[in-house]
Every structure is written in structure tokens, then in C-alpha cells.
Amino acid sequence: MKYTKGFLDALFGQEMHAARVQSLANGVVGVAKIGGGVASLQLPAGEQVANSISASPANRVGVATTFALYEINLNGVGVPQVIWSHPYDRGPGRKPGQLSWGTGSTPTYFGPTGADYLTIVDNASPFVHALVYQSGTGNPVCQLPVLTQGGPGSENSPIGVGSTMFIASTYGYPYPTVPPNAGPAIPPSAPFVGGMTRVDVDNPGCHTVWDSKIRSAALPHLSIADGLIYTITRIGFDNTTPVDGFAFAVLDPNTGNVLLQQPKSVSILSDPIQTATMVLMDNKIMQGNITGLGRIG
What we know:
Layout: H1 5-12, E1 19-24, E2 28-33, E3 38-42, E4 54-56, E5 60-64, E6 68-74, E7 80-87, E8 108-110, E9 117-121, E10 128-134, E11 140-146, E12 159-161, E13 164-168, E14 196-201, E15 206-212, E16 221-223, E17 228-235, E18 245-251, E19 258-265, E20 277-279, E21 285-288, E22 293-296
Antiparallel strand pairs: 1-2, 2-3, 4-5, 5-6, 6-7, 8-9, 9-10, 10-11, 12-13, 13-14, 14-15, 16-17, 17-18, 18-19, 20-21, 21-22
């Protein structure tokens, strides 16, 4: 969940000293007031919330279900309400390298002011698309095919900064397990070829700046301080094996070129399984993996 105390104070009122927004897997979005009382919104039957939610400083929350993207705020009596929603192409089923049938994206707010747009990646076949909407109105900005050089699916939230977003593929990633209600993958498995796309919003419309085959094994992060993208890459053949290696990698966001790829280990125990990279000072990162947490750089 992505929100701050300042946002919560603005959204729920100054008389509330603490609050929490929850998005539950059974399609309920709720507000819990630490001082007492709850309010909730039941989303349409059959829709699940399989990813995190995102909050905007403009007092709005983005929620992606397994069928649609919603933007939600509170009405005058503090009850969650839908401002707008848009269904998306969820494809024929869960793709290999994803943990649910539908978008794998936590919705991302981005734009010149930080929250002009709201985006997710759909689950269409044969190619997935970046879907961008105006925050507040839900007006469509663009629908653009992405990851056309790599695997057509993503379980990761897009990076969004300014009018730019970066989308990393997880298609075919060999997760050790998936949630019990995830359903079968279609196809049952696929090579992990990787892929990352940079898209810039022109408003109206968007365009692809670059499309690469980087095999990101982690949720990459862009550092505003030095303007570089940090991640962990998977080293080996497209058909993954337990003896694949992993490397610390730094990417140029302007070109998609790999500036540094420093091998770290040859062990499945170092697999970050698409968890988030945390950027530290001096070109270092903290990265979780199957066995723990490491400082790399």
C-alpha cells in the first residue's frame, strides 16, 4: 500500500489521527478508523483484488481487480465510492509468470504533478498493453502494446515518473508456487525471455521510446537521485534451471542499455522472485530473495 499520513489526514479529515485503507481479495474496499468505525464498498461479484493499491495526494485511491481498474475516494459521509472504472482485456487465463488471472499491476500514479495519470498493464493476448487514464476523470489517454520484444505479461507495477513509465515482463518467471486459487496457467509454462518497455505520455496519446529484452528477476526501481534503473537480472538460458545465476544490474532509462551487470551468485537461493529492489546511497541496493535480504552494489 502506498500512502502517507498527510494523505490520510486530508482524505479522512483532521479529526482522525490515524486511519487505514484496506483492499481485500474478495473485492471489498474498506476504511478503518483507529478511533472507531468502519466503512466499506463491495465491488462487483466475482472480482478479486490480487495486487496492492495505490494512493494519490489528490485524495484518490487506485484499485485494480481481476476484471477492471477503479479510482475511489470517500463521499461526504466517509464511505468509499467509485469515481470511475474501466474494464480491461484479462485474456484467456492466467499467464505463466503471473499470480492471478488478470492484470498483475498494482496501479501506478504518475505525471508532471505526480498524480495526473493512473496506469496498469492488461492481460491481453498475444500482446499486453499499457492502459493510461486521466486521474480524477478516468478519460482514456492511451492504450499501447508493450513488451513486444519480450514476454507478453507482467506481475509488476509499472515505474512512473514525470510523463514516463517503465514496464518489466515477468512472463514465464518460475515462481516457486502460486496462490491456491490462482487457477491453471495458459500455457502451463513458458521460457523467461524477459523484457522491459519505456513509454512516454504525450497527452493525447503515448509512444514507445524503447523496448528491450532485459531479464529482470526483481521489481526494478528508478532512482530520482542519479536517474538510473536498478534491478537484479537472471543469467542463463531462456528455459530457466535451478543453476541459473543472478546479477546486480544498472540500466540507462534513456536508452534501455545495460550500464553494469555484475554477477553475484549461481544459486536458486539468491532468486529475488520478482520482489522489489530498494535503492540506497552510492549506487547500492537492498534486495530480498528466497532466503533473506542482501545489500548489493
